[in-house]
């Protein structure tokens, strides 16, 4: 739901700031501050912000909040990934006559994929737990079971919700680990 | 081939390269040497426009390099740096094929070229599907050289290519690199901080200190006429011994005084052949010309009968080894003659201690006569 938006925004943001260390500092700081806002409060802020457009409750503020949350891990990992490529490697690429674009697509990106991907994985798994609160602002989701269960003092209902959410998180994490492994270039995985 | 005229480069207030003029001849191997931070690497990087220069002019192949698109220029100049230059996510094949692909060669030609170049740098064809992390330092360096040569550039720039290699393998790499250069005859600029490497490898040496070009000349000229104290110190007290390293084993290879036989022949036949020809040494070769064993027929003396000795796996000298290394090996194993092989381990002849002394003596008489 909010994941594709967040990946799109954060990865491109990461790319943009990767070659602009001055801007990068601010972007990463702002994203870090966003993450320290309690998730419930962030939902609240979103609801208020979107209220004038009659979108105050429901899916729109929920998606915005989760997107903001996942911004940091993905942006930061993309930024770090692109900058951890050894300068010697880039020198060599320039030296043999690769253009800037070729260096980005053929060298930097393949070498950065594992790190970017693990940022995305962290963001998504975190997103799953943050999404629990979404039911509070009428966006539905598995969180409904937990809050409804608490309201009725129904332990089974709370547990069902909690187990389902954990299972979802674990399942997604496992699946993404597989994806990460699959898209990592083979040469980076070989052991000496 | 490469012409630098009054080239100057400043980093801020610091002059990294001060008014360099030098001409690098086609097909020659020029060494840039000096302490770290002296400007040797900067000069190298200016030749393929990785570092822009402030003043002066650099002409490659008749064209000022500032008139050539840097990306195009670099594709026509091989570039080798320390081993980190290989791309870990690409196989050896893809690493070598990278420049030909940039130049849009067709696939067949690339495959053929990679095969050829792997052979040239004496790696096994099975390496092409491996990844750089699976290779040893020396193997990576060979792949790096192969990549630089893949698109058949006329010029090769090498920035301390053997710097990260252990001393033993470095010597081996130097030897095989010299053999390769003998075959390909590229114009090479080679940066090093190792004076022995510079003397061993170079046709010419450019000695650089604090951004100034101190001396640029043939290696033998530099050894016999150092321009100033700095050069003298750089060369060291033992420069006469170092001068020995200018001569290679291949300069003293003898093709007579021994016979070669097939390693399939029986010892009796070999012994008979040697006696018939009155020859003391025979080398057994297989059909690929690889040295398999040595036979010695010791002369009979008053109290000793003639003895026939079979010596499997004899010591050898590579033809690119210099006379320093050759003498050192002879001292080490106590032999006054050694078989010589090339980098493919094919037998090429024999080298004799007495012959080296003869040659050195002749030289001395000639050079004394001249002075």
Can you describe what's shown?
The complex is a heterodimer of chains A (192) and B (371). Chain A has 192 residues and is an all-alpha fold. Chain A has eight helices and no strands. Chain A has helices at 3-18, 21-36, 39-50, 59-84, 87-95, 100-130, 143-151, 155-183. Chain A is elongated, with a radius of gyration of 20 Å. The termini of chain A are far apart. Chain B has 371 residues and is α/β, with parallel strands linked by helices. Chain B has helices at 40-47, 70-75, 92-102, 107-120, 137-149, 167-184, 195-201, 219-224, 229-235, 239-244, 267-277, 323-333, 353-370, and strands at residues 2-11, 14-24, 29-33, 55-60, 63-64, 77-80, 155-159, 187-192, 204-209, 212-218, 259-262, 281-285, 291-298, 307-312, 317-318, 337-341, 347-352. The chains are: A mainly alpha (192), B alpha/beta (371). The A-B interface holds A 86, 88-89, 91-99, 102, 107, 110-111, 185-188, 190-192 and B 48, 50, 71-76, 78-79, 81-82, 84-91, 98-99, 102, 131-134, 147-148, 157.
List keywords for this structure.
heterodimer; A: 8 helices; 77% helix; 0% strand; B: 371 residues; 4-stranded antiparallel sheet; 13 helices; globular; disordered C terminus
Categorize the overall geometry of chain B: globular
User: Which residues of chain B sit in consecutive blocks of at least 5 with pLDDT less than 50?
Assistant: 365-371
Radius of gyration of chain A: 20 Å
Question: Treating each run of at least 4 consecutive H or I residues as one helix, how many helices of chain B?
Answer: 13
The level of helicity of chain B is: 25-40%
Distance between the termini of chain B: 34 Å
Oligomeric description of these chains: heterodimer
């Amino acid at each position: 739901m909010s994941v594709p938006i967040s990946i799109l925004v954060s990865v491109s943001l990461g790319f943009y700031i990767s070659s602009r260390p001055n801007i990068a500092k601010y972007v990463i700081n702002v994203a870090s501050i966003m993450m320290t806002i309690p998730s419930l409060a962030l939902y609240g802020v979103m609801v208020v912000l979107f209220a004038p457009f009659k979108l105050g409750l429901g899916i729109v503020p929920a998606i915005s909040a989760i997107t903001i949350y996942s911004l940091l891990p993905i942006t930061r990992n993309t930024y770090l990934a692109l900058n951890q490529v050894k300068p010697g490697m880039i020198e060599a690429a320039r030296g043999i006559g690769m253009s800037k674009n070729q260096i980005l697509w053929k060298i930097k990106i393949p070498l950065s994929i594992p790190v970017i991907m693990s940022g995305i994985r962290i963001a998504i798994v975190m997103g799953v737990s943050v999404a629990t609160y979404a039911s509070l602002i009428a966006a539905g989701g598995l969180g409904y079971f937990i809050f409804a269960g608490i309201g009725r003092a129904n332990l089974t209902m709370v547990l069902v919700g909690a187990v389902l959410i954990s299972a979802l998180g674990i399942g997604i994490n496992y699946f993404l680990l597989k994806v990460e492994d699959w898209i990592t270039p083979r040469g980076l995985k070989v052991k000496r | 081939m490469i012409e630098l005229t009054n080239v100057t480069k400043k980093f801020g207030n610091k002059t990294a390269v001060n008014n360099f003029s030098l001409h690098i001849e086609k097909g020659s191997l020029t060494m840039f040497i000096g302490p770290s931070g002296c400007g040797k690497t900067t000069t190298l990087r200016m030749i393929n426009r990785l570092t822009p220069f402030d003043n002066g002019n650099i002409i490659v192949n008749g064209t000022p390099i500032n008139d050539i698109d840097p990306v195009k220029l670099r594709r026509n100049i091989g570039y080798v740096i320390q081993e980190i230059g290989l791309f870990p996510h690409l196989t050896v094949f893809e690493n070598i094929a990278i420049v030909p692909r940039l130049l849009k060669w067709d696939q067949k030609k690339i495959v053929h070229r990679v095969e050829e170049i792997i052979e040239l740098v004496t790696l096994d064809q099975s390496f092409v599907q491996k990844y750089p992390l699976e290779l040893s330092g020396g193997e990576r360096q060979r792949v790096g050289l192969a990549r630089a040569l893949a698109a058949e550039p006329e010029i090769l720039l090498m920035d301390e290519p053997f710097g990260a290699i252990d001393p033993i393998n470095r010597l081996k790499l130097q030897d095989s690199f010299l053999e390769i250069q003998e075959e390909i005859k590229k114009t090479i600029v080679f940066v090093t901080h190792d004076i022995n490497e510079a003397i061993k490898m170079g046709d010419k040496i450019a000695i650089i200190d604090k951004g100034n070009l101190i001396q640029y000349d043939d290696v033998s000229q530099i050894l016999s006429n150092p321009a100033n104290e700095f050069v003298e110190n750089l060369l060291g007290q033992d420069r006469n011994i170092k001068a020995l390293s200018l001569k290679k084993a291949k300069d003293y290879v003898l093709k007579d005084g021994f016979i070669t036989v097939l390693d399939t022949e029986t010892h009796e036949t070999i012994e008979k052949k040697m006696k018939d020809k009155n020859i003391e040494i025979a080398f057994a070769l297989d059909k690929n010309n690889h040295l398999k064993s040595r036979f010695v027929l010791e002369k009979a003396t008053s109290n000793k009968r003639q003895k026939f000795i079979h010596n499997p796996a004899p010591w050898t000298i590579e033809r690119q080894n210099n006379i320093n290394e050759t003498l050192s090996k002879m001292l080490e194993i106590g032999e006054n003659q050694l078989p010589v092989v090339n980098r493919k381990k094919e037998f090429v002849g024999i080298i004799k201690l007495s012959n080296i002394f003869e040659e050195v003596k002749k030289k001395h008489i000639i050079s004394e006569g001249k002075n």
